[in-house]
Write a structure and sequence with these properties.
Blueprint (H helix, E strand, L loop, with lengths): L2 H15 L3 H8 L3 H18 L15 E5 L5 E5 L3 H8 L3
Antiparallel strand pairs: 1-2
Helix pairs in contact: 1-3
Length: 93
């Protein structure tokens, strides 16, 4: 587990714990400032994940077109059948 995965798992553990950030950090041996940074990163990831839904078993033909609409109004139209590639475009922003 790399540092990012570890810290994000700690943020999730804190959310489930019901205790204050300070108390959690004292018990885990993490500096409060560092922990606050990772809480911010976690929130940003949650914000990026929100607003999109997973396409489950779409009927794919060779002329499939998908639209990705970003919160700032930018619309990205993609003709592709590779959903992993489309997902990578969504995660750029």
């Amino acid at each position: 587990m790399d540092k990012k995965e570890y810290m994000l798992s700690q943020v999730e553990a804190w959310k489930q714990s019901g205790i204050s950030q300070q108390t959690f950090c004292d018990k885990a041996g993490i500096k409060l400032g560092t922990f606050s940074y990772w809480i911010k990163i976690s929130k940003q990831q949650d914000d990026l994940a929100g607003g999109f839904i997973e396409l489950a078993n779409p009927s794919i033909d060779m002329k499939s077109q998908y639209e990705i609409v970003y919160p700032n109004g930018v619309i990205l139209k993609v003709q592709n059948t590779d959903l992993k590639e489309i997902f990578s475009l969504v995660n750029l922003y």
